[in-house]
């Protein structure tokens, strides 16, 4: 009988959910002679089921177990060894009878093909899965031929704006200059997005190979990966991968025996959202404050240290090897005519199956939420899906049949963005969400442009006022005017798109703004200043818990008697509501 | 207050000739000293022969650089979108209460903990999330906070 292989998912999400304890336990048992092969892998995407362990090599084929507990796993392995379905949460089976298979069957994996499959710390495993074959193929082609393939594939930049990648490459290739750079933008700063983190943690070589191919096509000899420092595991895996690729002759001098040479560095960001903007990112690599500069000249002409530079984001680079290996035509068969290929999304919020997904372009938002994501997390109805982070917008129920491609999403007022998708239900207040994003952009504005620096602050003040019940009807017009001016008066994408969360919520959820302003009511019961807390006499047992936590001592009542909240003094902090163990306080 | 910063000389020397080094250099200095004091920044400026204002400009631009002494453990409370809609504010309040922080403080009196808000830790599926030093804790409720902090409060002072 062949040996059983036990694979543990050890990406950040998995580790946070306790996967390391499972791995260490298994490692200890194996050292003590237990008969199985132990492997590590990264993120398969079903973060809600972490920690995930995959068993293979037995008669039952490959099985994945979710929410694995250290106390059960050894027994589960023994059951599997005896060809019994483990008494555990089986999430995937080879025969596709598992409860979660539908979540994966709607997906198409190009970028994430190796994520959760290979050991990201092993270049040998990457090579065994076809790694660096695209680079070998490219070395037999001319740089121009490579660019033509990328052009023909129709690949568009996955960082958000959707600019054709092949065209961008051709600009950098044509630019005059002895020294050229390629850069990978891994400064994933959108709150609610972790596509790039998972890609880099799970398959770092695929991104590196894409960059080497790009460097060859454009004639660059040096590259940078600008990675968020908040992603320590991604940085660690990248450093190891670069060292291994150098050792094997894929990086450095005379790559694969040719006279092409290319070196790659990692630059860790220092915490500034605006550095995701390409000109700001280059300022930051140069060691300066990361503030955007005027374009033109575009980076292709004059970028890093004044040299022609090409910047693509992680997901764009991660598409390259697949396109080279499979050809432009096969790539164009996936997705839509104007947006070929796939898109990776970080699906989070009030959704049952939150995690990392890769779907073909052209799929509807409805299918993503109800098929791939498994529907809503609770009984509360769907309200909106937020796409594009602080630059994006909230798409309502009535537009759920919108298909995922750059142009259709733009038409809703949101943007495709880099791939954050946060699902919201009736317990989410849309004015509060708009305020949340404005608070973010306001604090991340670099301060260069007046409209962005001061305009976002004024918008935030107005939104805060509205959530406190102090808004007026003029505020809505003021928000619209400010939004128009900030969009016009800002240099970079951060400012130009900062008003989008406000504009889309005003467009689709104006009634919620009106409820806050005119009725002094928050329909989602989120904005605490507008809530009224009352004690339900039938449920109150007089335990005094609420009176003890009230910071303004506005709750009166004796032990074992019904208490009363003085509405005049109440500051709506909600402390009593949280403290009551008998559901005797109503919020509304 | 004059302090001897000669321990920084090796770091400065290692970087001196390379382009675009200011950010990694300051990161290393901060790792060594715990934070970037004005005196330390002046010392680097002197040695590197660049204006102190350039260094101060970079140090204040990036959120990673700290201009005040930090607690031994850094508690990061995630304020990303997924965490926000999963009541991250309640987690933050529970942390502030458990650490007994006054309204304008972010570091505890005994210099044990510093509380910071971060935009997103990228573990959105586990929202709401906090990170203490390098360990992430997910699917939190306010009740779980005191127990988690307890693990750091005793016995491991090095």
Task: Give an account of the 3D structure.
- The complex is a heterodimer of chains A (588) and B (158).
- With 588 residues, chain A is an alpha/beta fold.
- In chain A, helix 7 crosses helix 10 (204-218), helix 17 runs antiparallel to helix 18 (450-467) and helix 18 runs antiparallel to helix 19 (473-489).
- The longest helix of chain A has 18 residues, at 450-467.
- The N and C termini of chain A lie far apart (64 Å).
- With 158 residues, chain B is of the alpha+beta class.
- Chain B folds into two domains: 6-61; 73-153, Glutaredoxin (3-Layer(aba) Sandwich), CATH 3.40.30.10.
- In chain B, 42% of the residues lie in helices and 11% in strands.
- Classes of the chains: A alpha/beta (588), B alpha+beta (158).
- At the A-B interface, helix 1, strand 10, strand 14 and helix 17 of A face helix 2, helix 4, helix 5 and strand 4 of B.
SSE layout and pairing:
The complex is a heterodimer of chains A (588) and B (158).
Chain A (H helix, E strand, L loop, with lengths): L4 E5 L2 H5 L2 H13 L5 E5 L11 E4 L6 E4 L3 H12 L7 E5 L7 H5 L17 H6 L4 H6 L4 H11 L11 H10 L6 E6 L8 H8 L1 H15 L3 E6 L4 H16 L15 E6 L9 H8 L23 E5 H13 L1 H5 L9 E8 L5 E6 L4 H8 L9 E6 L5 E4 L9 H6 L8 E6 L4 H15 L5 H18 L5 H17 L3 H5 L2 H9 L1 H8 L15 E3 L9 H5 L5 E2 L7 E2 L9 H5 L5 E3 L1
Parallel strand pairs in A: 1-2, 6-7, 6-9, 7-8, 10-14
Antiparallel strand pairs in A: 1-3, 3-4, 4-5, 10-11, 12-13, 12-14, 15-18, 16-17
Helix pairs in contact in A: 7-8, 7-10, 9-11, 10-13, 17-18, 18-19, 19-21
Chain B lengths: L8 H7 L6 H12 L4 H11 L3 H10 L11 E6 L2 H5 L2 H12 L13 E6 L11 E3 L2 E3 L7 H9 L5
Parallel strand pairs in B: 1-2
Antiparallel strand pairs in B: 1-3, 3-4
Helix pairs in contact in B: 3-4
């Amino acid at each position: 009988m062949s040996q059983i292989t036990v694979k543990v998912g050890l990406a950040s999400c998995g580790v946070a959910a306790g996967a390391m304890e499972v791995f260490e336990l298994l490692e200890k048992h194996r050292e003590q002679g237990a008969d199985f092969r132990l492997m590590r892998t990264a993120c398969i995407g079903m973060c809600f089921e972490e920690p995930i362990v995959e068993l293979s090599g037995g008669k039952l084929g490959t099985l994945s177990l979710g929410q694995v507990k250290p106390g059960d796993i050894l027994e589960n392995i023994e059951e599997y060894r005896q060809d019994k379905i483990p008494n555990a949460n089986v999430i995937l089976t080879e025969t596709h009878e598992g409860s979660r298979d539908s979540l994966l069957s709607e997906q198409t994996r190009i970028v994430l093909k190796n994520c959760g499959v290979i050991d990201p710390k092993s270049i040998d495993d990457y090579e065994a899965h076809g790694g660096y074959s695209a680079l070998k193929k490219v070395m037999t082609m001319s740089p121009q031929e490579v660019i033509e393939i990328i052009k023909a594939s129709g690949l568009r930049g996955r960082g958000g704006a959707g600019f054709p990648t092949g065209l961008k490459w051709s600009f950098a290739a044509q630019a005059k200059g002895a020294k050229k750079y390629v850069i990978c933008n891994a400064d994933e700063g959108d709150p609610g997005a972790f596509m790039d983190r998972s890609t880099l943690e799970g398959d770092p070589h695929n991104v590196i190979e894409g960059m080497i191919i790009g460097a060859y096509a454009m004639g660059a000899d040096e590259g940078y990966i600008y990675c968020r420092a908040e992603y320590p595991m991604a940085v660690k895996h990248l450093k190891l991968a670069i060292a291994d690729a150098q050792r094997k002759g894929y990086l450095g001098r005379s790559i694969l025996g040719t006279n092409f040479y290319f070196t790659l560095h990692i630059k860790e960001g220092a915490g500034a959202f605006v550095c995701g903007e390409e000109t700001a990112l280059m300022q930051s690599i140069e060691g300066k404050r990361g503030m955007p500069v005027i374009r033109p000249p575009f980076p292709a002409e004059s970028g890093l240290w004044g040299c022609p530079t090409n910047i693509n984001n992680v997901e764009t680079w991660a598409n390259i090897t697949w396109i080279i290996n499979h050809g432009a035509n096969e790539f164009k068969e996936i997705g839509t005519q104007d947006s070929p290929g796939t898109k990776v999304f970080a699906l989070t919020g009030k959704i049952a199956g939150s995690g990392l997904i890769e779907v073909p372009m052209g799929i509807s938002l409805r299918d993503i939420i109800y098929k791939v994501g498994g529907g809503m997390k609770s009984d509360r109805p769907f309200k909106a899906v937020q796409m594009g982070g602080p630059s994006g917008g909230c798409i309502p129920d009535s537009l759920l049949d919108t298909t995922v491609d750059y142009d259709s999403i733009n038409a809703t007022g949101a943007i495709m963005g880099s791939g954050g998708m946060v699902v919201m239900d009736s317990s989410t207040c849309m004015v509060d969400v708009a305020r949340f994003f404005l608070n973010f952009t306001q604090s991340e504005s670099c301060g260069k442009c007046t409209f962005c620096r001061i305009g976002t602050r004024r918008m935030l003040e107005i939104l805060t006022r509205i959530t406190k019940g102090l808004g007026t009807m003029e505020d809505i017009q003021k928000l619209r005017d400010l939004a128009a001016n900030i969009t016009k008066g800002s240099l970079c994408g951060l400012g130009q798109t900062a008003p989008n969360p406000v504009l889309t919520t005003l467009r689709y959820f104006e009634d919620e703004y009106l409820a806050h302003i005119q009725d002094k009511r928050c329909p989602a019961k989120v904005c605490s200043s507008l809530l009224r807390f009352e004690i339900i006499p039938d449920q109150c047992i007089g335990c005094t818990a609420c009176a003890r936590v009230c910071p303004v001592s506005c709750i009166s009542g004796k032990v074992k008697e019904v208490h009363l909240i003085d509405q005049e003094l109440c500051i709506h902090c909600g402390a009593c509501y949280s403290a009551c163990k008998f559901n005797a306080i109503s919020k509304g | 207050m004059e302090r001897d910063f000669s321990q920084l000389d090796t770091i400065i020397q290692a970087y001196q000739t390379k382009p675009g080094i200011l950010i990694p250099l300051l990161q290393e200095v901060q790792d060594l000293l715990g934070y970037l004091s004005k005196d330390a920044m002046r010392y680097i400026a002197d040695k590197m022969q660049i204006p102190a204002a350039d260094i101060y400009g970079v140090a204040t631009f990036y959120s990673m650089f700290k201009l005040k002494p930090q607690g031994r453990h850094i508690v990061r409370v995630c304020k990303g979108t997924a965490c926000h809609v999963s009541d991250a504010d309640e987690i933050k309040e529970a942390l502030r209460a458990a650490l007994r922080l006054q309204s304008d403080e972010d570091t505890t009196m005994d210099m044990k903990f510093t509380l910071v808000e971060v935009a997103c830790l990228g573990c959105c599926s586990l929202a709401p999330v906090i990170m203490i030093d390098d360990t992430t804790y997910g699917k939190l409720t306010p009740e779980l906070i005191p127990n988690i902090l307890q693990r750091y409060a005793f016995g491991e002072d090095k």
